[in-house]
Amino acid sequence: MTPNPKSYVVGITGASGAVYGFRLIESLLSLGYTVHLVVSNAGWRVCKEEMGLNVTSREEFLQERFGGYPGKLLYHPVADIGASIASGSFRVEGMIIMPCSMGTLSAIASGSSDNLMTRAADVMLKEGRPLVLVPRETPLHAIHLENMLKLSRLGVRMIPAMPAFYFGPQSMEDLIDFMVGKVLDSFNIEHTLFRRWGE
């Protein structure tokens, strides 16, 4: 029997930086993985306003954007609380929310599961599966920090959108790739998105 390709849940919220999530999806699909995608309503708005994307027909747009990769993209509307990824019996390797708004982070920290994004994150926690959040906010106040600390103590990996400069980035794409590479590193996924220290 041929083993199924590994699957990851990717969430995109209304925080600034939807381009991070898109590059992550491209990277996972290019490696042949299956991606279960959830985008909040605010996330779709950011895609339109920051990236100039026409997302009126969302599934058609996603097919056009990501249809040419060897991996498989499965889109789940954020209101579909009965989707496969809402159940702990549905197995995936883990979940990444990139970027993660402070509202979504707060909901996860409080155990709120009122949409598919936060429910899928709650499933990762209860099943002991990897959950990575990429918060994108500045400055941070005490509530933000307390919520991040609470989740970190539960094993959630926090990878703030803070790109490095030691590798000599030449473009915005280099900075985006660095952050996506750090997320892939957290899952031990091999990549060549940035030059490592000492290379």
Automatic annotation (TrEMBL):
Binding-site list for dimethylallyl phosphate: Y166, K182
InterPro entries in the cross-refs: Flavin_trans-like (IPR036551), Flavoprotein (IPR003382), UbiX-like (IPR004507)
Binding residue positions for FMN: G14, A15, S16, S40, S101, M102, G103, T104, R136
Domain Flavoprotein: 7-186
Residues of the signal peptide: none
GO terms of molecular function: carboxy-lyase activity; flavin prenyltransferase activity
Domain of life: Bacteria
Pfam families with a match to the protein in the record: Flavoprotein (PF02441)
Keywords: Flavoprotein, FMN, Prenyltransferase, Transferase
Matching Gene3D superfamilies: Flavin prenyltransferase-like (3.40.50.1950)
The EC number(s) this enzyme carries: 2.5.1.129
The keyword Oxidoreductase belongs to this UniProt entry's keyword annotation: no
Catalytic activity: dimethylallyl phosphate + FMNH2 = prenylated FMNH2 + phosphate
Biological role: Flavin prenyltransferase that catalyzes the synthesis of the prenylated FMN cofactor (prenyl-FMN) for 4-hydroxy-3-polyprenylbenzoic acid decarboxylase UbiD. The prenyltransferase is metal-independent and links a dimethylallyl moiety from dimethylallyl monophosphate (DMAP) to the flavin N5 and C6 atoms of FMN.
Family statement drawn from the similarity comment of this UniProt entry: Belongs to the UbiX/PAD1 family.
Full protein name: Flavin prenyltransferase UbiX
